[in-house]
Design a protein that fits this description.
Strand content: 5-15%
CATH class of the largest domain: Alpha Beta
CATH architecture of the largest domain: 3-Layer(aba) Sandwich
Strand order of the largest sheet: 2-3-1-4-5-6-7
CATH topology of the largest domain: Rossmann fold
Structural class: alpha/beta
Number of helices: 22
Length: 450
């Protein structure tokens, strides 16, 4: 996510860290790097100019507190302004105080509206509400069937609309059936188009007047950059919207849409799609994303992922074993499986402060975790608990059973021993407290060769 932008900004941040005194000249030089990074990231040019001017004004207009490094003071200003650019505050769904809540999903075809409707339903269900989804898209072939298939996978009720019905009638009947279904939130997936046209807008206006939605959410493909921003601006002017959902954010290396859309439309980004799976969807946090972009990590998101996906009792037990002599390959396998539940390792590592830059020097192989699991699963229980007995003959058998080779077995065992030794050393010192997590060992044996 935003790798290109982060790499470009890394140079600017290093320059800022080296400042011992803030002057108009050196601030200007550092901001030139930031300006180029933002423009290359496809950030709106007016937004970029305003951002740079605002940072310069604050940097020159405030005194650095005594004992605070001028460079760090400058980085804080850039960080705070970036949070502001991304929207400032985290904003969720505005649920109705009384009666049902109606959410209208809008956007162009191909933006991921249908999958987003289901992902959002899952998030809402986790908050204790009872959502129902309905497709008012009578134009796209199989649109209704697609929504039904996705929703049924996570046990979300779907209103049985048919393509021969009128979109407005579909919405009316879906609202009428909410009580029967025990639903208090209705998510309406409207039809998208390949481009904005008058017919599309007229239909949306008619649906809006009929259902009187609590939220009109515009779903935008983050990878389309300024095109997404311009379409969102037009939608807002013609229909009005209360929030934006950015999809495919995990594949967006630049970040132009995320950094421009709030400033251009005045509408906050509320959610972000970070993958194709139903659970790869999260509330948009401007402060956390700003930290990620500037290489500061995102510890809060890391903690939340751990709490959602990892059994806390098992994690505590694992943490104790990591620092003891009894930590073996059975424990290592369990640790790998815990991490897998949290998502792709490269994404997880980027949430750890400082890990993003360290990963650039690591040869990350996303399939190595799978191979490591296969290797351990091909071992006997005795071999897992006492890896020292694994001789050449045993290695040949394990390699045949796991579809790997002896070189990979040796590398995995070497990484395991290296991690075990490191953890044992840390367990005797201050590191124990700070490393009570499933990421001990800096990625050794998890698909990252240092």
């Amino acid at each position: 996510m935003f790798e290109s932008l982060s790499e470009r900004l890394e140079g600017a941040v290093k320059r800022l860290k080296g400042l011992h005194k803030l002057t108009e000249e050196n601030i200007g030089e550092a901001m030139r790097d930031v300006r180029m990074a933002l423009l290359e990231a496809d950030v709106n040019i007016s937004v970029t100019k305003e951002f740079i001017a605002s940072v310069k004004e604050d940097a020159l207009g405030t005194k650095t507190a005594q004992g605070v490094d001028p460079g760090q003071h400058m980085i804080k200003i850039v960080h705070d302004k970036m949070i502001e650019l991304l929207g400032g505050e985290t904003t969720g769904i505005n649920f109705a105080e009384r009666g049902p809540t109606i959410l209208l999903m809008t956007g162009l075809q191909g933006s991921g509206k249908t999958t987003t409707a289901v992902k959002l339903a899952k998030v809402i269900a986790k908050q204790g509400y009872n959502p129902m989804v309905v497709s008012a898209d009578v134009y796209r072939p199989a649109a209704m069937e697609q929504l039904k298939t996705f929703a049924e996978q996570i046990d979300i009720p779907v209103f049985p609309a048919t393509p021969d019905m009128k979109p407005v009638d579909i919405c009316k009947q879906a609202m009428a059936s909410m009580t029967k279904e025990g639903a208090n939130v209705l998510i309406v997936d409207t039809a998208g188009r390949l481009q904005i046209d008058d017919d599309m807008m007229d239909e949306l206006k008619e649906i809006r007047e009929t259902v009187k939605p609590n939220e009109i959410l515009f779903v935008a493909d983050a990878m389309t950059g300024q095109d997404a921003v311009n379409v969102a601006k037009t939608f807002n002017e013609k229909i009005g919207m209360t929030g934006v959902v950015l999809t495919k954010l995990d594949g967006d290396t630049r970040g132009g849409a995320a950094l421009s859309i709030k400033k251009v439309t005045g509408v906050p980004i509320k959610f972000a799609g970070i993958g194709e799976k139903v659970d790869q969807f999260e509330t948009f946090h401007p402060d956390r994303l700003a930290g990620r972009i500037l290489g500061m990590g995102d510890v809060l998101s890391l903690v939340e992922k751990a709490q959602e996906n990892i059994d806390q009792k098992k994690a505590a037990k694992q943490a104790q074993k990591i620092f003891s002599a009894s930590f073996d390959l059975n424990d290592f396998l369990e640790q790998l499986q815990m991490i897998k539940k949290m998502g792709p390792l490269d994404q997880i590592m980027k949430l750890i402060p400082g890990a993003a830059s360290a990963m650039k020097n690591a040869n990350y192989d996303p399939d190595e975790m799978l191979r490591t699991e296969a290797l351990i699963n091909s071992m006997t229980l005795k071999e897992r608990s006492a890896p020292g007995i694994i001789n050449t003959s045993r290695k040949r058998r394990i390699a045949a059973g796991s579809g790997t080779d002896i070189v990979e077995i040796n590398r995995m065992l070497k990484n395991f021993q290296k991690m075990k030794k490191m953890m044992k050393t840390m367990g005797r010192g201050k590191g124990k407290k700070s490393m009570m997590n499933p990421f001990a060992g800096g990625g050794a044996g998890l698909g990252m060769e240092q």
